[in-house]
Amino acid sequence: LVLILDFGSQYTHLITRRIRKLSIFSLCISGTSPLKSIKELNPRVIILSGGPHSVHSDGAPSFPDGFIEYVESNNVFVLGICYGLQLIVQKLGGEVRVGEKQEYGRMEIVVEKEDCGLFGLKKVGDRQCVWMSHGDEVVNLPNGFSVVARSQQGSVAGIENPIRRFYGLQYHPEVTHSPEGMETLQHFLFNVCGITADWNMEDVLEEEIKVIKELVGSEDHVICALSGGVDSTVAATLVHKAIGDRLHCIFVDNGLLRFKEQERVMGTFEKDLHLPITCVDATEQFLSKLKGVIDPETKRKIIGKEFICIFDEFAQDLEKKLGKKPIFLVQGTLYPDVIESCPPPGSGKSHSHTIKSHHNVGGLPKDMKLKLIEPLKLLFKDEVRELGKILNVPVGFLKRHPFPGPGLAVRVLGDVTQGNALEILRQVDEIFIQSIKDAGLYDSIWQAFAVFLPIRSVGVQGDQRTHSHVVALRAVTSQDGMTADWYYFEHKFLDDVARKICNSVRGVNRVVQDITSKPPSTIEWE
Ligand code: XMP
Questions:
Q1: Among this protein's residues, is 82 annotated catalytic?
Q2: Residue 365 half-sphere exposure toward CB, CA atoms < 13 A
Q3: Does the ipTM exceed 0.85?
Q4: 201-398, superfamily in CATH?
Q5: Of 82, 193, 342, 502, catalytic
């Protein structure tokens, strides 16, 4: 295991992902975690991440007491990156000076030592571009350390003490702006630390199945709400492989789904994945509660509450049928959901695991007292897709764009029951998405959809003046949905789509495109 201690850098999770890409299992925990948690994980290598602090600032986060003694007596290799390097220097008796030579952005560094642990593949004098982001600098090394690389400005860029197994890089090898950074990490982990590349999704799958079998035993039953998204589908398929038809899934059609969505996802669940699933058509129940509701948050709350009622009924029906209560609930929680809910070191808040308020099922009733099974909670999205492939989830399904839990309710602005807004939106959305697929653009876009605007504009269609609806098209690129940029379509593409929409969807006479990034906008319109 390569353990990353997070001191608050925006790149910390990238380190975890990069190392996993080398088929090495890595985990990230708060840099101020107690020594006990570190010992329990028994890592071979510990990476101290960067962070926004200065080692001299009040409350600067640090590893726990006894850390140095622990790593040295257990032969653990330690690599400090940026703030992590400065922490090593300061804690082992060297000196870090508050920023005289600040270095931000692209820099060149020069290797100063042959056969060293970090640049062992390079020669003295070799240069490489790296990404720096630091205000403080190392001025005195602790005893036994040597400088292995310097920046073009002469400041320390790499240090090591191979006898004590401490290493440090002042720059960020994990970002793509350090093009040789991966090579450096790879050399360090494989050749210096002796780690083997033995982490793969087949093993993860086998291990998860074993854990679930042990947890659930041979009698108990498990329930799962499928949203039609990748995460819950992969989680359910995995649990199904472990315990078979003692898994009971529910898919709720709340009347806010996209064009033919129920048919399409149920087809995958039943025919491709053979999941034991109940489909509940609750269109009337949801739409009657949403009638006349305009406020976006109120819409979300109503939808969450209705969903819980249906889920509760499902659990009660199952209890009657099986003669016993289902004990477990499967959720498709991912690693970013778990780490995002860890507060930054030094914030004084607890590190409890809270589920995102955005979660698809909109929260679950507290009195259900179900125990959670979260088989994906240590995986990133791309790893879940890989796991899905092994589980034979169709690739087209795994690549679906995210779709919000409240569905089209947040894409019909205002009252979702106004006129035939939902029907119009479904048709427009389908034309837009199909055109994107036909143009081969679907996989380059994070999310694309149409929005129904609650206004009318004047138009002229077939020699007649019309007073019809306006729809907006939104397509964004993003890594994680937290920030996003609008997608640049060719004008010809937009022209074709707008024409197709106005010619085939009755009631629409104007198409506009949303060209705002997030921030200042959000991806959804409500
Ligand atoms: P925003 O609109 O906040 O969206 O920029 C970021 C990502 O989250 C999705 N989203 C939701 N997902 N329940 C969900 O399950 C919600 O209430 C919800 N609101 C937004 C959105 O589609 C985008 O991918």
A1: yes
A2: 15
A3: yes
A4: HUPs (3.40.50.620)
A5: 82
